[in-house]
Design brief:
Blueprint (H helix, E strand, L loop, with lengths): L5 E7 L3 H12 L4 E4 L8 H4 L3 E2 L8 H20 L5 E8 L2 H12 L7 E3 L1 H7 L10 E10 L2 H16 L2 E3 L4 E5 L2 E4 L2 E10 L10 H6 L3 E10 L9 E4 H6 L1 H4 L4 H11 L1 H5 L5 E4 L5 E4 L3 E3 L8 H15 L6 E11 L5 E7 L2 E6 L4 H18 L4
Parallel strand pairs: 1-2, 1-10, 2-7, 4-12, 10-18
Antiparallel strand pairs: 3-6, 4-6, 5-6, 8-9, 9-10, 11-14, 11-15, 11-16, 12-13, 13-14, 17-18
Helix pairs in contact: 1-6, 1-13, 3-13, 4-10
The structure holds flavin-adenine dinucleotide.
Amino acid sequence: MQNPRLFDLAVVGAGIIGLSCALAAARLGKRVLVVDRDTQANGASVRNFGFVTVTGQERGPTWDLARRTREVWAEIAEEARVAIHHRGLLMSVRRQESVAVLEAFLRTEMGADCQMLTPGDLLRRQPELAGPGTLAALWSPHELRVESREAISLIAAWLEARHGVTFWRGTAVLAVETSRITTTRGEVEAEAIAVCPGDDLTSLLPAPIAAHRVTRCKLQMLRLADPGFRLSAGVMSDLGLDRYAGYAALPEAAALRRRLEAEQPRHLEHGVHLIAVQSADGSLVVGDSHHYGATPDPFAHEAVDRLILDEFETVFGRPAPSVVERWTGTYATAPGRTVLVECPQPGVRLVMVTTGAGASIGFALGEAVAADLFRGSEL
Ligand SMILES: Cc1cc2nc3c(=O)[nH]c(=O)nc-3n(C[C@H](O)[C@H](O)[C@H](O)COP(=O)(O)OP(=O)(O)OC[C@H]3O[C@@H](n4cnc5c(N)ncnc54)[C@H](O)[C@@H]3O)c2cc1C
């Protein structure tokens, strides 16, 4: 009989990043334990849009991680019974400066398979976006949308059933050292350890986290009642071109930034941009805002929700449906980096996504971490 306290990989954290490391190691035939202090997923991974975004991710390694992660979502969705609610992205814009950014984007390698749509095209594809203010839209076929609050538990259950991954829930990890973790259920031995703590910056490995000046970002989110139409894709707007590095780093984005500063300063002040995606019952998940700090307040401020709804109403050209749910979420963030992978001790890796993209780049990151731990590949 196998020793129930001996594993090839012990993963701390059952969010999307911990599950990604667990999946990649299990696919290498490894015996995996995942430990989480919560009895069910409760962190950023279940508070997000479930929008697996490729187009707009930072050019280079992050974009590559996103493309591979999207492939893994598509590979596992059916087997893990994760529903894909819609595919693709419509980036609807109402300023000439935004059109210039989209045209420049389409000239890069990141624009492959994407397309510029006219208002006439939109009228056929998503008429709600074809209002008089709309100049154009970028269509990207790459995105997927899942319902994270269901998907995370479905993936965990599938990892358990299909890949034999062991889960210890309601169990905090108190200490980590080479080949051993100490938990509230006693000690476990493991050849390798992946610490995926989300935005817990102090419980485990605080020194490397502090060294990289990791802090938190708080977001406000809304669920709106079924608007009576169906979205064929996730929707974003001009403000997204300023937030997502894949567009914002293009030289053409500077003129758009100046115009947004003049026209939507309060949206910029609160980091508000628009993402709207739809759920199986027709309701819309709409957000979001960005406020930074080591311990952001946990409150959803009405004035910030109003800014999100204001952008929704402008883009869709109609009053927003009633709000049926409000919540906040936080993720880890660090200046100038998308991911933080550190090796504080032999066989131990700290794995954090330090921007709002864990659902979009997590699976590929997990593969890189597993290859590094078990095959000695360079990260
Ligand atoms: C509102 C919001 C919207 C977002 N939208 C998107 C989106 O649409 N697309 C996208 O790609 N990304 C999005 N993101 C970002 C994405 O959700 C995160 O990057 C991702 O969920 C981080 O995953 P994680 O596993 O690192 O963290 P988490 O989901 O927070 O999981 C970390 C887990 O570690 C556990 N843990 C920590 N310390 C310990 C310990 N000592 N012992 C035991 N357990 C421990 C916690 O209990 C927790 O369950 C969004 C984030 C937010 C907040």
